[in-house]
UniProtKB/TrEMBL annotation:
It holds the Pfam family BLUF. This is BLUF domain-containing protein. PROSITE patterns: BLUF. Coiled coil: none annotated. Residues 21-112 form the BLUF domain.
Amino acid sequence: MKGIESVATKAAGEDMTNSSIERLVYRSRVVHPAPMTALEDILPVAQAWNARWGITGALGYTGRTYVQLLEGPTESLDSLLERLRSDLRHTDLRVLARGPAAGRLVTGWSMARIDLTLLEAEVTALLDAGDGEGLAALLAGLVRRGETEAR
Ligand SMILES: Cc1cc2nc3c(=O)[nH]c(=O)nc-3n(C[C@H](O)[C@H](O)[C@H](O)COP(=O)(O)O)c2cc1C
């Protein structure tokens, strides 16, 4: 935990809007239980952890797929990605986009939850094209329009 603690000190002491921020988009396959049930457990933990480590973003899901937009300091993203990769509640995690971001697409949400079921065709097309930036824009647009289910 020592490495993590040093990140905490740094994150807490920085102006998150000016420190270097990275944007990451991944997709993974849903594993039982279905997203609506799994997210009841996942979201409270995710929101608390993300708030502490300077991560904001949105977690979308269809019946089969999770798509998550994560924005925050590099160390926080690395640490979270490692835990996400070993989380058995999803599988086949694939990073679609990652890189420096001039600013956050999503602000004020430690993790917004978005039901993408009705947008499945659009989401599938973006996934098939491997278009992480397109998926980030889609999720961020939905958050801005208030199409979220939890703060
Ligand atoms: C689809 C999905 C998205 C998740 N998103 C986050 C997240 O944004 N932040 C977070 O801290 N944990 C998230 N988690 C949970 C982590 O994988 C992990 O279980 C949690 O951080 C607790 O880690 P620990 O059990 O090692 O303490 C997510 C899990 C899944 C399946």
